[in-house]
Specification:
Length: 436
C-alpha cells in the first residue's frame, strides 16, 4: 500500500467511525431524551453571531435580569394561575432544547425546556410571523381542537367563552416583554423518546408579533395543573430528572429522564417547597452558603421561604447564571475576593474576574440546603474569558428592584449534575454526573 492509499483508508475509517458515533442520531432508551444546548451541534439553531462561547454565555446571561425580575414579580400576585393564561407573561430564555414528535405520524420539533413554566405551545401551519418549521395539524390523524367550554380552556384563558362566535379556545399571551402570541388550545399525541402521551393539551400558535418566541415552541416542566408533568402523571408519576451539558460542549447533549424508572437510587435530597401563589416554581430551602471553609454571614430572612412575598430560592433551568438577592451576593463575593486576592475586574455580568493563574486558590462554593450540601464543582462556579487568561466567579446579584426577594439557582450551576425533581415525594435530588 502506498501512502495515499493508507491516508485514504485512514480517512475512510475516520468518517465511518464518526458516522457510527453520531451523538445527534442516538436517542437513549425509552423515557430518556437528549437535552441539547440550543446552539450546540445537534440543535437546528445557530448562534446569532459566531461568538466565542463565553461571549455567547454573557449574551444569554444578559437576558437573566429580565427573567429574574419577572419570576420575582409573580409573587405578589394572588392568582393560582395558570399555565398558558391569557396575558400572562412568559420569558424568552431558550437555553436548552429537546426533540419531540407531535401528532400521528409524528412531526419532529425542537422545543425549549423551561422548569419555571407550565406552558406548552408550538407554531402551527399558517402562523403569521412564525419561523419556517411549523406543526401541520392537517396531516395528523389524532389532532383535535378543544372547545371553548372545556375546563382546560377556562384554566388557560382565565376568561369565560364569548357568548357568540367562534367556539374554538382562543387565547393570547405576552412573552419576553416585547412579543406576544395568539393561539388555539388543541390536543394531539406527544412522543417523548419511545413514550407517547395520547391527548397532550398545548397551544397551537396562529400568529406572533415581536421577535423573541422560541422558534419551535416551548415545553414547560413546571409543577402547575396543565404542565407536561401534570398531564403525564399516570405515566411518569410526577418524577423527572435532567443533566444539563456545559454550553461549551458543542458536540454533546445531556439527558431528560421522565418517570421514576432509571432514576439514581443513591441521591441526596432536599424537600421541595410549594408556593400556592406560584404553583409552577420549584422552591427549595437554601439555608446558607459557604465560601471555602467560611459560612458567609447573611441574615436568615434573606434566604427564608415566604409564600406571601415569594421570597426564597428556586431551581430554574431558564436562567443562565445563579442570582442571589443583592446583600447575599455581596457577602459571597466579598468572602470570595478575600480568599483569592485581586486585582479584580468585570466581564459582562461577572464582577469578580481575576488572573486564571490564581485559580488553584479559588475556594469551593457550597450551597447548604435542608438535608443536603451541594459543593459546586469548579467548572460550575468559575467561567473563563475566551483567551483563558481570566477566571470569573460565575454568579451575580439579582436585579436590585423593590421586589428582589428571590434567589435563583440557574443552569450554569447545574451543569453536569443530575437534578431529580420528585413531585410525588416532594423532594429534589442532586448527584454528580458527567453528561458533557
Ligand atoms: C395542510 O396545510 C398546509 C398549509 O396550511 C397546506 O399547504 C397543505 O396542502 C395541507 N395538506 C393537506 C394534506 O391538506
Ligand atoms: C387577542 O388579541 C387580539 C388582537 O389584539 C384580539 O383581537 C383578540 O380579541 C384577543 N383574544 C383574546 C382571547 O383575548
Ligand atoms: C428552612 O431551614 C431553616 C434552617 O434550618 C428552618 O429554620 C426553616 O424552618 C426551614 N424552612 C422551611 C420552609 O422548611
Amino acid at each position: 500500500m502506498d501512502l495515499s492509499t493508507v491516508t485514504f483508508l485512514f480517512f475512510a475509517l475516520l468518517i465511518s467511525s464518526v458516522k457510527a458515533f453520531d451523538p445527534c442520531a442516538t436517542q437513549p432508551d425509552a423515557s430518556d431524551l437528549s437535552v441539547i444546548p440550543i446552539y450546540g451541534k445537534c440543535s437546528p439553531f445557530t448562534a446569532p453571531k459566531s461568538n466565542s462561547w463565553v461571549t455567547t454565555v454573557i449574551d444569554m446571561a444578559s437576558k437573566d435580569p429580565e427573567r429574574v425580575k419577572y419570576l420575582s414579580s409573580l409573587v405578589g400576585q394572588k392568582t393560582t394561575a395558570v399555565p398558558i393564561a391569557s396575558g400572562q407573561q412568559v420569558l424568552n430564555t431558550a437555553n436548552y432544547v429537546v426533540r419531540v414528535k407531535l401528532g400521528n405520524p409524528g412531526q419532529l420539533m425542537f422545543m425549549v425546556l423551561d422548569t419555571s413554566n407550565d406552558a406548552a405551545w408550538v407554531p402551527c401551519a399558517g402562523c403569521t410571523g412564525c419561523s419556517a418549521t411549523t406543526f401541520q395539524p392537517n396531516t395528523s390523524s389524532t389532532y383535535r381542537s378543544l372547545d371553548c367550554s372545556m375546563t382546560q380552556c377556562t384554566q388557560v384563558r382565565g376568561l369565560s367563552c364569548p357568548e357568540t362566535g367562534n367556539s374554538a379556545c382562543l387565547f393570547n399571551q405576552s412573552y419576553g416583554g416585547d412579543s406576544s402570541l395568539s393561539a388555539t388550545l388543541v390536543q394531539d399525541s406527544l412522543a417523548l423518546a419511545n413514550d407517547v402521551l395520547p391527548n397532550f393539551v398545548f397551544g397551537c400558535i396562529n400568529s406572533i408579533s415581536g421577535g423573541s418566541i422560541p422558534p419551535q415552541g416551548l415545553l414547560g416542566l413546571g409543577r402547575g395543573p396543565m404542565s407536561l408533568i401534570s398531564q403525564s402523571q399516570s405515566l411518569y408519576s410526577g418524577v423527572f430528572s435532567y443533566c444539563l451539558p456545559s454550553f461549551r460542549s458543542y458536540y454533546f447533549s445531556g439527558s431528560l429522564k421522565l418517570g421514576p424508572v432509571g432514576q439514581p437510587k443513591n441521591i441526596r435530597t432536599t424537600p421541595l417547597l410549594h408556593n400556592p401563589h406560584r404553583p409552577s416554581l420549584y422552591y427549595v430551602n437554601l439555608t446558607g452558603i459557604s465560601v471555602g471553609r467560611v459560612l458567609v454571614p447573611v441574615e436568615p430572612e434573606l434566604l427564608a421561604f415566604n409564600p406571601n412575598t415569594g421570597a426564597g430560592t428556586i431551581i430554574d433551568s431558564g436562567t443562565v447564571i445563579t442570582r442571589f438577592v443583592p446583600p447575599v451576593y455581596t457577602a459571597i463575593r466579598d468572602e470570595f475576593r478575600k480568599q483569592v486576592k485581586g486585582p479584580f475586574s468585570s466581564l459582562g455580568a461577572f464582577d469578580t474576574c481575576f488572573a486564571a493563574t490564581y485559580e488553584a486558590v479559588a475556594p469551593v462554593i457550597t450551597l447548604h440546603f435542608t438535608g443536603m450540601d451541594l459543593k459546586l464543582p469548579m467548572e460550575n462556579s468559575l467561567i473563563h474569558s475566551s483567551a483563558g487568561s481570566l477566571a470569573c466567579l460565575s454568579m451575580a446579584a439579582a436585579p436590585n428592584n423593590v421586589n428582589s426577594v428571590l434567589n435563583v439557582i440557574a443552569n450554569l450551576q447545574q451543569q453536569n449534575l443530575r437534578m431529580m425533581f420528585d413531585e410525588a415525594n416532594s423532594r429534589l435530588g442532586i448527584a454528580r454526573e458527567l453528561c458533557n
